[in-house]
Amino acid sequence: MKKQLDLTLYLVLDPLLCEGINGMVNTTKIAIANGVTAIQLRSEQTFSGKDWYYAALALKETLKGTPIPLFINDHVDIALAVDADGVHIGQSDLPVDVTRQLIGNKKWLGFSISNHQQLNAVPWQKVDYLGIGPIYPTATKKDAAKALGTKQLTELVKLKQCPAVAIGGIDESNITDVIHTGIEGVAVVSAICGKKDIQQATLSLINKIKQAK
Ligand SMILES: Cc1ncc(COP(=O)(O)OP(=O)(O)O)c(N)n1
Ligand SMILES: Cc1ncsc1CCOP(=O)(O)O
Ligand SMILES: [Mg+2]
């Protein structure tokens, strides 16, 4: 059965910031115990096929028996190999229709957009949620588009036809403004990964979301 698609606080794991597979597993355990509602495995650094597979397998095992879904960034083969709950792709990845054909309807499909033109081209029937960003400058994605800011995000939120998360440079200092745009949730990497106190970092974000909604 499909797991929930609750985008409230979506944690995108970075193996470098979390210091490896054990670090990602540990971060995930603490994050989901304190309110994170979705997990994605993403690596910008060199990560072999085997690294992807064993990391995804460990995370799948960690989330077993919980309502929290596991998404795999870009790599449909890894998502299929570990039977992840979903895949996240962007403008430069496999086309949406091809990805949907490969993963079927039992897995969630997330798709990134960074502007109005990309939003107008979204195949809404095939996508379950959008990742909209970057909202603010970020060091976590080298080829990130220009930061949108919350004014443009508000416009995109009004036009979208499926749920969405905002991503890029979001932390406890600006998360309230992002939630006030009316978006369903927020995705973060560095606001949780690599923090000394994962519990405190997660709670601070989740409490600000609750207050802002
Ligand atoms: C939740 C979420 N939103 C956006 C992205 C970015 O995807 P993409 O544009 O394909 O860039 P990479 O992450 O592949 O570098 C994401 N991963 N997750
Ligand atoms: C994956 C991704 N897509 C757009 S910005 C971004 C990186 C977000 O990382 P951080 O939360 O550390 O800014
Ligand atoms: Mg991608």
TrEMBL record:
Its cofactor is Mg(2+). Mg(2+) binds at residues 74, 93. It is an enzyme of class 2 (transferase). It holds the Pfam family TMP-TENI. It catalyses: 4-methyl-5-(2-phosphooxyethyl)-thiazole + 4-amino-2-methyl-5-(diphosphooxymethyl)pyrimidine + H(+) = thiamine phosphate + diphosphate; 2-(2-carboxy-4-methylthiazol-5-yl)ethyl phosphate + 4-amino-2-methyl-5-(diphosphooxymethyl)pyrimidine + 2 H(+) = thiamine phosphate + CO2 + diphosphate; 2-[(2R,5Z)-2-carboxy-4-methylthiazol-5(2H)-ylidene]ethyl phosphate + 4-amino-2-methyl-5-(diphosphooxymethyl)pyrimidine + 2 H(+) = thiamine phosphate + CO2 + diphosphate. GO terms for cellular component: cytoplasm. Pathway: Cofactor biosynthesis; thiamine diphosphate biosynthesis; thiamine phosphate from 4-amino-2-methyl-5-diphosphomethylpyrimidine and 4-methyl-5-(2-phosphoethyl)-thiazole: step 1/1. This is Thiamine-phosphate synthase. The lineage of its organism: Bacteria, Pseudomonadati, Pseudomonadota, Gammaproteobacteria, Orbales. The gene is thiE.
